[in-house]
Amino acid sequence: MDNISFHHENSASRWKFVYNRRLAPERELGKSALECQELVDMISEAGLMKTVWGLGNCYEKLVKEFLVNIDVINQYLGRSIEEVADLEASENEICKTLTGNLVKKWPRKDKLSSTKLTAKYALLNKIAVVNWVPTTHSSDVATGLSKFIYAIGTRTKFDFGYYIFDQTIQHAKSLAVKMPIAFPTILCGIILNQHLGIRVNIDVPCKRESPLSLDYRLLEGTHVSDIATLSVKKPTATLTRKQMIADLKDVSKALGEKKFKVDLVIQALELEEETVAVETEVGQSQDNSDDDNAADDIGDDMQGDDTDGSPDI
């Protein structure tokens, strides 16, 4: 290994594809989520706390050049490196558990609507689509994602290290550009643990989004209550334009392919926000200019008084 590149020589031809993929940087849990002890206990027991809390820096180039083995991932997460049997639960059993028996058979369309999930699995799903199985289609739950949150929610033994390894292998083999790279911070942590001096000057930490917080909408409505949480406050009736933009972006992600109209509203609000900021700045400049003109007028009047024959003081 050196400070320039450490992907295998035979894989160099894939670099142009991997290089253009976007990373899906993990987001830490917000205060409201961390106060939900049952949620924290489930994630901790699964050995995944390092994927949601105390996240270190994430360096894009290091991630895109990295291929890792299973044992190293499990050791870094503090998990056992012993082999774990495959998850034996059927799709129908998983479906019933995730929905609180609301849906008894896995849908023929191959995806389960997230509105059918119980509160516990709705919360896990919100974390999963950002940190564990990154996707913009958070309104539907695919079979792979369902097994992941089922294992955490039921505290079933599951080889999460292998899952991370498998995701990494898929990226190493695939030529797809639109495939978001999962667990980038974890991969960086493993690399930097083994090779402290591997970073170069051009490596800059990736920008990370704000922490994930509990959404009160996941604890009411169609979501069956099956998790003990502290009271989650509803947003105030009056939202700032910035808060509205942030909320609409979350809604846009949840809508998936139906988000076009929401995106137009977001763009309009952002344009309005910029316009208001410019108008405010111009207004302040105009006020200052008016003050200067008024001062000049007063000075002129005083000079005029001095020329009418009155004595100087």
From TrEMBL:
It comes from Trifolium medium. Pfam families: Transposase_32. Residues 277-313 are annotated as: Disordered. This is Envelope-like protein. Residues 277-287 have a biased composition (Low complexity). Residues 68-186 form the Putative plant transposon protein domain. InterPro entries: Transposase_32_dom. Residues 288-313 have a biased composition (Acidic residues).
